[in-house]
Amino acid sequence: MEALLAEIRAHVWAWVPETAYLGGGTPGNMDEGDLRAVLTAIPGRPWSEATLEVAPGAVTAEKARAWADCGINRVSLGVQSFVDLEIRRTGRKHSAETVAAELRVLREAGIDNVNIDLIAGLSGQTEASWRTSLDWIERLAPPHVSVYMLEVDEDSRLGKEMLAGGARYGAAETPGEDQAAEFYEIAVERLSAIGIPRYEISNFARPGCESRHNLKYWKLEPYVGFGADAHSFDGETRRQNAESLEEYLAGGRAAESPRDGAERFYVGLRLVAGIRPEPEEWRRYDAPIRRFVAGGLLEAADGVLRLTDRGVLLSNEVFQEFLSL
Known about the structure:
Elements: H1 2-10, E1 19-22, H2 32-40, E2 49-54, H3 61-70, E3 74-80, H4 84-89, H5 96-108, E4 113-120, H6 127-140, E5 144-149, H7 157-163, H8 177-193, E6 198-200, E7 203-205, H9 212-218, E8 231-233, E9 237-240, H10 245-249, E10 255-258, H11 263-266, H12 279-284, H13 286-294, E11 298-301, E12 304-307, H14 309-313, H15 315-323
Parallel strand pairs: 1-2, 2-3, 3-4, 4-5
Antiparallel strand pairs: 5-7, 6-7, 8-9, 9-10, 11-12
Helix pairs in contact: 2-3, 6-8
């Protein structure tokens, strides 16, 4: 905490922050005094949006009031699933009823802007259980939902077990990529039907409730990050703090790299609204654009380039093409 506060206080602000986001772990477990100290060190309060990532089961009326008093006006709940078996296998300890109760607590504290994270492809997940989680979303009516497809690290216990063809850690019951993609498509259709349309590959929101902070990343606007492994971008240069906590506490130097000219394609194309390439960009990327349009992965109209629904599912292939140019 001392190192984090020292880094924030030493920063020379070239602009006043409009948004703040505390994530990358369980900042909801921070001591109230520490949270207040961090937010006090950041200029711009009241921010248009100040988000705190919270694990379900950690919300109390006292904490929620303290968060709101510190300037937090948005909470992102790492729910992942509303189905008991799936929740247990993620190591979480909440229940669907816990999430419902905590949403009421947050709203009573004046924090109405809440995001709920869901993961498609969890061990033991079926189409029926996935639809159960989506039923809970409809019942709870959050303004924002994030849907991520499970990515298994080959070095994790689950990853090693899957590679070995074993059954421990639910490896034998983990849906394949195609099935997880089907779950994702079900979510896109269901969330749109209940008024929470997709605005970015993994993010869905009621109109006007899109994450203002995260939109800055996808639109390549400047942001500054603090803490171990935090990233910053000033519009031209990217900066990454020392990755491990030990290196960070030892004052490890940040790594810098220039902005990649293709970033607007593989970052901006994540947005449903797409991007409006400059004339030079249309010329530079003419070959891959034509190929992906012909293949039904991109569509171009009125100077705007965007992913098709099929392109979203194969977005990594599209982005890789621009990364390699």
